[in-house]
Amino acid sequence: MSTPFEKPQIISHIQKSLNYTIFDCKWIPCSAKLVCLGNRARGTGVLQIYEVQGGELKLNREIEKAKPFKCGTFGATSLQQRHLATGDFDGNLHIWDLEAATEPLYSVKAHKEIVNSLDGVGGLGVGDGAPEVVTGSRDGTVKVWDPRQKDTPVANMEPGAGEAKRDCWTVAFGHAFNQQDRCVCAGYDNGDIKLFDLRNMAVRWETNIKNGVCCVEFDRKDIDMNKLVATSLEGTFHVFDMRTQHPTKGFASVLEKGHKSTIWQVRHLPQNRDVFMTAGGAGNLHLWKYDYPAQRSGEDSEGGAVGVAGTVNLLQNVTLSTQPIASLDWSPDKQGLCVCSAFDQSVRVLIVTKLNRV
Question: What is the rounded distance in angstroms from the CA atom of residue 103 to the CA atom of residue 78?
């Protein structure tokens, strides 16, 4: 019989109060440093770099800019450069050298309205092909940018003439397992999920989960599509098995009622793609493990291949804050180390134990 101590534990290692609203936090790869992005009360943007030292977070650098920062990624840069791409409230995409961040290395007016979400691929040794950043905005468009190409996106996914513009809340890269293939998944405020095939410049699949889609993430960006998690406003999330696409039924999925409130984020453990953490509106984190079915695909009545969804098991949960946890990032280097930020204006470094046993 297993004891509670054999399960993974989520331990709050460091908590740091901030004097601004923080929207995103990211580990700087190959370092004990993290970056925090947010909004000061006077309406300016703030970028801070902290280093974990002796059980505390020490402020290394602070940069203030005219517009509030909403989101960031290191995904489109090399491990040597570690340049940060950011999206702001004015629709700008900037790429910064954090060693000399007075002026951005790359700057483009990406959208007419706020950049809600961005993701990077092709950098950090993750994913084949060009280094690219995808942005999703309140203006209803999803755009893919190559930092080597100025001003013009390499792909622009927008509603057709006469179609309603939906607020795009979340974007994620996936399927970047060779030089040619790459997909972008986008989630919208009306529950739409769209999978764009960048190789063929077409919508490969779409569905609606009946609730605003807060976050989507593939379990890995650099493999043939395997699983996709989509979280929603009503505390539910879907795990889609992306290996078998049926012509009419699409991808098989399992629906889980994870939280009592909005699930703001989902992040897969870099060292184990079947373990992921969800961050909730009630200030809690839930750690999950996906278990595959005995057979991942079967046959429908006409002999066509149809996917079979697995099951999701809760490994651990913890409440850290009275406010929503809006961002979460696992360390790519140290298994079990993660950072999260909440609307109580604080950032927390967490340690999750026993992940090698799940």
Answer: 19
Place of tokens 């390499």: 154
Q: Does residue 1 have a pLDDT over 60?
A: no
What is the greatest pairwise CA distance in the chain? Answer: 63
Q: 104-119: buried (b, 16+ CB within 10 Å) or exposed (e) per residue?
A: bbbebebbeebbbbbb
**pLDDT tens digits, 341-357:** 999 999 999 999 999 98
* Per-residue H/E/C for the chain: CCCHHHCCCEEEEEEEECCCEEEEEEECCCCCEEEEEEECCCCCEEEEEEEEECCEEEEEEEEEECCCEEEEECCCCCCCCCCEEEEECCCEEEEECCCCCCCCCEEEECCCCCEEEEEEECCCCCCCCCCEEEEEECCCCEEEECCCCCCCCCEEECCCCCCCCCCEEEEEEECCCCCCCCEEEEEECCCEEEEEECCCCEEEEEEECCCCEEEEEECCCCCCCCEEEEEECCCEEEEEEEEEEECCCEEEEEEEECCCCCEEEEEEECCEEEEEEEEECCCEEEEEEEECCCCCEEECCCCCEEECCCEEEEEEEEECCCCCEEEEEECCCCCCEEEEEECCCEEEEEEECCHHHC
pTM of the model: 0.95
The CA distance from 323 to 23, in Å, is: 13
